[in-house]
Amino acid sequence: MKGNRWIARISQIIMVVLALFLAGDFTYADAQTEPDIRLVLQITIDGLRADLLNRYENGFGEDGFRFLMDKGAYYTNAHYQHANTETIVGHTTLATGTFPSQHGMIGNVWFDREAGELAYNIEDPDSPILPSRENESTGEQVDPAQKKSRTQGRSPDVILVPTFGDDLAAYYGGRSKIFGVAGKDRSAVSMAGHVGKAFWFSTNTGDFVTSSYYYDAYPDWVSKWNGQRKAEGYAGKSWSLLNDASAYLLAAQDDRPYEADLKGYGRIFPHPFGQSDDKLFHTRILVSPIGDQLTLDFSKALINSEKLGQDDIPDYLSISFSSVDAVNHFFGPSSLENEDVIVQLDRTLADLFAFIDKTVGFKHTLIVLAADHGMADMPEYMTELGFKAGRLEPDEIVAEANKVGRKFGIDEIVRFFYRPYLYLADEKIATAKLDRTKVEHAIADALTDFDGVALAVASSRLSAQQTDPLIEQVRNNYHVSRSGDIYIVQEPYWFLFDKGPVTAMHGSPWRYDTHVPIVFFGPTIDAHRVHRRVHPVDVAPTIAAFLGMTPPASVQGSALVEVLKR
Ligand SMILES: [Zn+2]
């Protein structure tokens, strides 16, 4: 009996120990969720204002945007904190986790005081673009920022601080592979940082190109991809709606008089691309869902050829999709074109995610999605809806400032104006022995009274004591040698830009331009929507923290706790 009891006891103990062991083992396995990340995939949708994801959600499939929104940590209330919400400014902020005041990219274009002319952000005469084919023809440049470029060279030299990608390279002793791909040069170059490699779509040729900063000659796989002449396959074809028109919320908003026509591209569907020797052919490709599809196709070739995410050392790939922004500029964010390009991008993203799962695996991938800025509707559209809005003429702003200058006895006190900055004629002010601060304030006050201008901020007024949120955004944008003397903030929905093919703009400090989505998806990240206010400067430090790294050198943001909870 005694013996039997012992046997029963022992088997009880064994059962308990076994149960504990099993349970312990389970818990142990559960705790082993330290992610094994092999690829950081940072997706930036150029010009994707945050509310557009809500507006078009019914048109999305299960595997694109909705997949990230439902399965990731989705931040619905993220806002840029700088005033000049433009492409290079937003991308570099995402890449570095800091403000333009530190990373130095204060606008797509600024006035080079020393040279006395405009500078395009990433231009670099010492880093020419590598020709991708013989007898390259030149397309007509309609990007108003790129048009200002003095040279065809491109490099990140002008970015003043390291990016997350730069730090990743340092952390892993140069063993991480780091790449930036985009429809636009500035989006690829900024995200690739100083040590990564960048490729972008050429509106001259439809090829993905790079510069001598990155390579002496094209890698074979790039020449092979370009040799397929994929863009030219769309010659004579059109951009048509993906679905029946009745499926769209904005079906009635196709033909609007204030939409732009890219010389035959038309205001209504279908939009014909024209023939491949047409000077605007490759631009029209970018101003359509095809631009994003080609960007994806090239990125897949890159992932395969460079073997991204195939070993324990995490690689970094930034893909910036540029077509939503391009479409917005010509048709506006409340057009049928905008709805279709985003619905088609949803399918492109689904394709990308399936490819990543197959080649790298979701369990080895951290996906981050954000946008570089939002977008304003055209003032004519807002006026139709009952808003007060209009178009500000840059020349009128200059004339008003010069009028104030004459009161101080100076003719043409404005040296240069390129939105948002007014640059004053320093020498004239010094020669006249004027109190510079007094002059600046007088001009700023006169411009603030100007119809359509909300606030003109003299740089000398950007003291830290100023708590006005607009002034704080202007201060975050201020770099001592690149910024101008007076920052012009237009009233909401007012258009402040040169006359040209572009009819809708972003670039203001207002919420439609600062509000962007931020989503993190990866192993160990719980699905939830976060509605507290966060900022794009938080993105780079969050990626760094997720990988157990120190944040980039000049970081101003904080790691997002919801992404790090394990
Ligand atoms: Zn942009």
List keywords for this structure.
566 residues, alpha/beta, 9-stranded mixed beta sheet, 4-stranded antiparallel beta sheet, 21 strands, binds zinc ion
Task: Write a short abstract of this structure.
The chain is of the alpha/beta class and 566 residues long.
Would you mind describing this structure in some detail?
The protein is 35% helix and 17% strand. Mean pLDDT is 93; it is low at 16-32. It is globular. The protein is built from 20 helices and 21 strands. The longest helix has 30 residues, at 2-31. It has a 9-stranded mixed β-sheet with strand order 9-8-7-12-1-13-20-2-21, sandwiched between helices. It is α/β, with parallel strands linked by helices. The structure holds zinc ion (ZN). Residues 46-47, 87, 325, 372-373 line the site of zinc ion.
Count of extended strands: 21
What does the radius of gyration come to? Answer: 26 Å
Q: How widely separated are the two ends?
A: 51 Å
As residue ranges, the low-confidence spans are: 16-32
User: What does the oligomeric state look like here?
Assistant: single chain
Reading side by side through the largest sheet, how are the strands ordered? 9-8-7-12-1-13-20-2-21
Q: Class by helix and strand content?
A: alpha/beta
